[in-house]
Amino acid sequence: MISANMLIFTELYKSVENITTENKAIKIIIIGNDYDVIDIRKLFNKGIKSYLDKNSSYDEFIKSIEVLLSNEIYVCNHAKDRMINFISNEQDTGKNQIKDPLTRREMEILKLICDGLSSKDISEKLFISINTVETHRKRILLKLNVKNSVGVVKYALENHIID
Q1: Which 8-state DSSP code applies to residue 73?
Q2: Are 60 and 76 spatial neighbours (Cβ–Cβ below 8 Å)?
Q3: CB 3.0–4.6 Å: which of 5, 56, 130, 151 could bond 52 by disulfide?
C-alpha cells in the first residue's frame, strides 16, 4: 500500500512504475490526494489495483482489500463519481476530447495563466525556471490547439476549469 499524501504525482507514478517493473504480481492500493481522473487512469495503467482518496471510509478501505484479494480492481466511490462525471461531460460536450490530455502541472499552469500571471510570476510561484514555464505554455497551446493565452482562458471557461 502506498500513501500518496506526501508524494507529488510524478514521484508516485515513478514509484508505482518501479514497483510493478520489479514484481508484476504485486497488488498496489493507492490512498491519494484527490488526483484528477486522468492521473488515476495513468496509475491503473501502470499496475495499481485499488485507488482510495484520503477521505475514504474505513469500510471502503476494507472493501478495497476484499476486492483486491478476489483479483479485481477497486475505485472508491468519490473517485468513481468523478470518473463518471468526466466521461459524461466528455460525451455531452465533446469539449474535453483533446488528443493529448494536460498533465497535472500543465493544468496548474493553465489555471495560473487564467489568473493573469506572467511566466515570471508563475516561475516564482512554482519554484521552476522561466524556461520550464515557457515550455509548459507551448505544450498547453499545442494540446488545446489555441494560439495564445486568450484561447487558453476561453478553453478553460468552456470546459468549466475556471469560473
Answers
A1: -
A2: yes
A3: 56
Q: pLDDT, tens digit, for every residue of 2-41?
A: 555 556 778 888 999 999 999 888 999 998 877 788 888 8
CATH architecture of the domain formed by 2-92: 3-Layer(aba) Sandwich (3.40)
Q: Which amino acid type is present at position 128?
A: I
Residues of the chain with CATH 1.10.10.10: 104-158
34 Rama sector, left if φ>0, alpha if ψ -120 to 50, beta otherwise: left
CATH topology of domain 104-158: Arc Repressor Mutant, subunit A (1.10.10)
What is the pTM assigned to this prediction?
0.54
Alpha-carbon span 149 to 124, nearest angstrom:
19
Phi first, then psi, for residue 44 (nearest 5°) are -65, -40
| CATH 3.40.50.2300 residue spans of the chain | 2-92
| Spatial distance between the Cα atoms of 30 and 127, rounded to a whole number of angstroms | 27
Residue with the three cell numbers 476486492: 67
**pLDDT tens readout for residues 32-91:** 877 788 888 888 989 999 999 888 899 999 999 999 898 899 999 888 888 877 776 655
CA 21 to chain centre: 22
